[in-house]
Amino acid sequence: MSTAPSARSGSLRRAAATLVVVGVAVAGCTGNDGAQRPRSEPEASTAAGTAPEPALASAGTDEPTAASMVGTSSARTDRPAVASSGCGTSPVRAVLDQREVIDVDGVERWFLLSTPPEHDGQAPLPLVLDFHGLSEGAEVHGLTSEMPAYAQEHGFVAVLPQGSGEPVRWAVEPDAENNPDLRFVTRLLDRLEQRLCIDTSRVYATGFSNGAFLSSSIACALPDRFAAVAPIAGANILCDGFERPMPVFAVHGTVDPILVFNGGANLESVPGVDLTASSRKPQELPPADLEGAGYPENMMRWARFNGCARVPTEKSVADDLLMRRWDCPDGADVEFVIVLGGGHSWPGSEFTESIESIVGPTTMNLDATDAMWRFFSRFQLPDD
Question: Which domains does the chain have, with CATH numbers?
Answer without folding.
Answer: 5-41+49-376 (3.40.50.1820)
